[in-house]
Amino acid sequence: MASLLLTGCGQGAEPGTDVSSGTQSSNASQPSENKSENVVDQNALLRINDKLSAELGDNYVQGWMKDGNLHVSTTDEGELDTIEKAGAVGHLVKFSSKELRSGIEEVMKWQGQQEAPVRNSIHAYSLNPETGGITLSVDKSQIDAITKLIEKDKPIGDIPVDFKPSGGIASSANS
Predict the structure, then answer these.
(1) How many Cβ atoms from other residues are within 10 Å of residue 92's Cβ?
(2) Are 27 and 34 in contact (CB under 8 A)?
(3) Mean pLDDT of 122-145
């Protein structure tokens, strides 16, 4: 499961790398010894993440890749040393993965009780391991209204919530 949480996270190109579509540059056909020695072995980072997920158990919140490093958030300050010894960057957060997932369920219940257009304006929910909270993808025309309502109603208590503009509900045509 930890591998699935990392899928697609932070896997954008490293700064300074060429991300071109269509035709490949002439460097693409060069032997691997010409590639940068700083290339991140994402599979190795995924293995470390899986190991830490198993080792930390309920104290593991989530892992993500950023700037070529594996980052892992935990609810137990004592686990930061374990994370760093494994080669990852540790982050201490207040809420567990289970609490954050329950928070998403609560925000979904809250959303279902709202009137249109608010009820239809939150398009995605995700854990935000960097803040130890939840990120909501919201119709950009409704971000202010939903922000104010969530601050007023507090459907998930003190769990931090951040908002990002949504391009719409995912569908086979735009996902």
Answers:
(1) 15
(2) yes
(3) 93
Q: For residue 144, which amino acid is it?
A: D
Q: Which residues does 43 contact at the CB level (< 8 Å), separation at least 6?
A: none
Position 175 scores a pLDDT of: 43
Side chain identity at residue 82, one-letter code: T
Predicted local confidence at residue 53, as pLDDT: 96
Q: What are phi and psi of 111, to 5 degrees?
A: -60, -40
Q: Is 143 helix (H, G, I), strand (E, B) or coil?
A: helix
Between 103 and 130, the more confident residue is: 103
Interacting residues of 61 by C-beta distance below 8 A, sequence separation 6+: 72, 73, 74, 75, 93, 95, 96, 97, 100, 127, 129, 132
SS3 92: strand
User: pLDDT > 70: what percent of the chain?
Assistant: 73
At 63, which amino acid appears?
A: G
**pLDDT value of position 6:** 44
Question: How much of the chain is helix, strand and coil, in % rounded to 5?
Answer: 40, 20, 40
Running DSSP on this structure, what letter comes out for residue 38? T
Give every strand in the sheet of 60-66, ordered side by side. 60-66, 69-74, 89-92
Q: In 3D, which of 94, 136, 51 has the Cα closest to residue 63?
A: 51
